[in-house]
Amino acid sequence: MKFTQSIKEIGQPTSHKRKHAYDIQHTLGHGEFGEVKYAEEIATGEKVAIKVVTKSNYRNLEAQKHRLERFGTMSHPNLMHMKEWFESRDRYYFVLQYMSGGELYDWVEKESSLSENVARHISKQLLSGIAYLHEHNVVHRDIKLENILVSEDHEHVVIGDMGLSASLREEESQLYAVCGSLGYTAPEVHDRTGYSKPVDLWSLGVVVFLMLGGRFPYLGNDAATVAKEGKDRNIRFTRKAPWTNVSDKAKDFIRQLLEPDVEKRLTAVQALEHPWILEELPESTIKSINDAALHAHEHDDHSNDMDVDHPPPLQRRVTDTPKNAGAATGYQGGEGLDLQRSETKTDRQDDENHRLVV
Ligand SMILES: Nc1ncnc2c1ncn2[C@@H]1O[C@H](COP(=O)(O)OP(=O)(O)O)[C@@H](O)[C@H]1O
Ligand SMILES: [Mg+2]
Q1: Which of 182, 222, 241, 259 lies 20 to 30 Å (CA to CA) from residue 327?
Q2: Between 356 and 102, whose confidence is greater?
Q3: How many Å apart are CA 317 and CA 298, to the nearest integer?
């Protein structure tokens, strides 16, 4: 066994031997950058998730090493923790805390919509994670239901998938690459005049809207239309349930996040002070959250839920990266999203200098 292992290590980076410390099992998910596997550390039995990303996704491997070192020093209860990382000749392996409750996407899909108390409990945690990232001058750029992971008892959520995140050199630095996920991206991303931290608060506004209403806030099916609806403040609070039962405070909170003027949009710190977020959580909320966890694995048939007069209830959204913008990702050639324009010099510098891929 030892002999076979050492043969396998020939020509491999030294950290590759860490791969043998894990029993790598089934696939948990895959997206734009690679695959995430369930694994157990052999010595301790600890459950982990290992994200495997091919190195061809990175333009500058040396710079990526520096970013990983920097990322390794960041730690917050609502950001997915990276235990360690190792590499092979052509892949990176990121060992992450395992979140057995799955994606927030699945929870919202299963329940169609969440109560205000549950949504508030989740929103507070997300804001706390975003505030930490922003304090460290990191912009996530891909906050969405699929990238938020839930603990076994559903009480705890973490923001994952730092694949598009950008580390700002200075507080005032601007980003230019058109990327994110359709329906979640702030309108200013498509203006090509520069954007920064406020984009994460916009995406959070979409997440809160989805949690409470079970549908996207805008009807459009392409980036340009959604950006226009966003700029027009055309948020679809319908006169039907569940919106008829949602408080004005909650709607005000969403409006202040889905605010097209970035100067007026709430920052993460301000959002943590919003009256809706500050409202107390009744004790019964945690019980209903734990109940949701118990029923999380039961199968529901949503096949008859389509309603032709409304936007689709909920859809998974593919991440649009600076590299693939416009190419079969749900964006249908909206303004500024064709491949050529997304490969401008500013975008390449942006991608090269800021990406913090994990
Ligand atoms: N730590 C984890 N625990 C459990 N499942 C995870 C974990 N990390 C990722 N996943 C699953 O894998 C999917 C893809 O992971 P993600 O980091 O978002 O990669 P990608 O860049 O490919 O989108 C997630 O949406 C989720 O379903
Ligand atoms: Mg993802």
Answers
A1: 259
A2: 102
A3: 23
Helix (H) or strand (E) holding 266: none
**Is residue 101 within 6 Å of ligand 1 at its C-beta?**
no
- Alpha-carbon Rg for the chain, nearest whole angstrom, is 21
d(CA 151, ligand 1 centre) in Å: 13
Q: Is 154 left (phi over 0), alpha (psi -120 to 50) or beta?
A: left
Residue 13 CB burial class (10 angstroms; 0-12, 13-18, ≥19): exposed
Instruction: Specify the ligand 1 atom closest to the Cα of 80.
Output: 1
- Assigned domain for 358 exists: no
Residue 344 included in any domain: yes
How much is the pTM? 0.87
Catalytic site positions: 142
Distance between CA atoms of 213 and 238, rounded to whole angstroms? 9
Residues 69, 132, single domain; the answer is no
CA pair distance 27, 49, nearest whole angstrom: 9
Are 85 and 138 in a shared domain? no
Predicted local confidence at residue 252, as pLDDT = 98
Question: Which ligand is the nearest neighbour of the Cα of 30?
Answer: 1
The rounded Cα 19 to chain-centroid distance in angstroms is 27
- Non-local CB neighbours of 53 within 8 Å, separated by 6+ positions: 33, 34, 91, 92, 94, 163, 357
Flag the least confident range among 21-30, 214-223, 306-315.
306-315
Domain span at residue 60 reads: 2-97
